[in-house]
Design goal:
The protein has a six-stranded parallel β-sheet with strand order 2-1-3-4-5-10, sandwiched between helices. It has a two-stranded parallel sheet with strand order 6-9. It has a two-stranded parallel ribbon with strand order 7-12. It has a domain at 3-135 and 177-201 and 242-246: NAD(P)-binding Rossmann-like Domain (Rossmann fold). The chain has helices spanning 11-19, 55-76, 107-120, 149-160, 179-189, 208-219, 243-246, and strands spanning 3-6, 24-26, 40-43, 80-85, 128-133, 135-137, 162-166, 173-174, 176-178, 196-200, 206-207, 222-226. The model has no long low-confidence stretch (mean pLDDT 96). The protein starts with a strand and ends with a helix. The protein is of the alpha/beta class. Strand 1 (3-6), helix 1 (11-19) and strand 2 (24-26) form a beta-alpha-beta unit.
């Protein structure tokens, strides 16, 4: 199977390329993609910073290019997988069901919602699959603007012997999913003739402080609490409901 992976030089893209020998990569700025001979598209390419507020840039790279690629895939009946985000659920959600009303509070999350809306509100001649990523971590995270606590805390421990966590981090929970699991789910869905939106997490949540303690125990670093900045749309709790996804695995 010939796979096109957009954003192949990014964090998840590098792991995806390593797991799919022979996959074709494409990056923003490479010129127009080629779908000749392609059997499936995994669209990871996007501005991934949740703090980005340049709407013109987000619209061009996250929305317009995604929709253009989607329609080209439709013309050729090429299955399309799209990397979305749990950020679309917003800061007040506690159930994280794919059927829940979305509530994007950042421009990044809004850009993902726009593409989801196009994908989910018409019939397509091929499978169209939206994966809402929760907090992915693992190898090659140095390419991310905002690495997961797993990587950030280890970098801090190595550089300074200290781990900085926000005050109250024992009450901030995330569903941390290893990137290897993300790749595994994408690969499994290549063989499924299904469309829709699917959570991609673990179904369990762990506090930032728990992660800090694990890293501290492993490295001997000291944990230091720092003031919590004001962050628009900050989610204090995420935990994927994996019922729908797991039923297909």
């Amino acid at each position: 199977m010939a796979i096109l992976i957009t954003g192949h030089k990014g964090f998840i893209g590098q792991n995806m390329m390593a797991a799919l020998p022979g996959a074709v990569g494409h990056e923003w700025g490479d010129g127009h993609w080629s779908l000749d001979g392609i059997d499936c598209v995994v669209h990871l390419g996007a501005i991934s910073s949740t703090a980005c507020t340049d709407w013109d840039k987000l619209r061009e790279q996250n929305i317009n290019s995604s929709i253009d690629l989607l329609y080209e895939c439709a013309n050729r009946k090429i299955p399309f997988q799209f990397a979305s985000s749990a950020g679309v659920y917003g800061p007040s959600n506690t159930t994280f069901l794919e059927t829940d009303k979305v509530d994007p509070q950042t421009q990044y999350a809004l850009s993902k919602c726009y593409v989801e809306h196009v994908m989910l509100n018409r019939r397509w001649p091929m499978p169209v699959q939206v994966f809402r990523y929760f907090n992915v971590y693992g190898p090659h995270e140095h390419h991310k603007d905002q690495p997961s606590p797993h990587s950030r805390f280890r970098l801090q421990a190595a550089a300074t012997g200290q781990i900085e966590v926000f005050e109250g981090s024992d009450e901030i929970y995330r569903d941390f999913v290893p990137v290897e699991r993300v790749v595994e789910v994408h690969k499994h869905f290549f063989d499924l003739d299904v469309s829709g939106v699917y959570n991609l997490g673990t179904g369990t949540a762990k506090s930032f402080m728990d992660v800090a303690r694990e890293v501290a125990d492993d490295t001997g670093a000291e944990i230091v609490e720092v003031p919590m900045p004001r962050i628009v749309g900050y989610q204090r709790y995420t935990c994927a409901d994996m019922t729908k996804t797991n039923a297909l695995l």
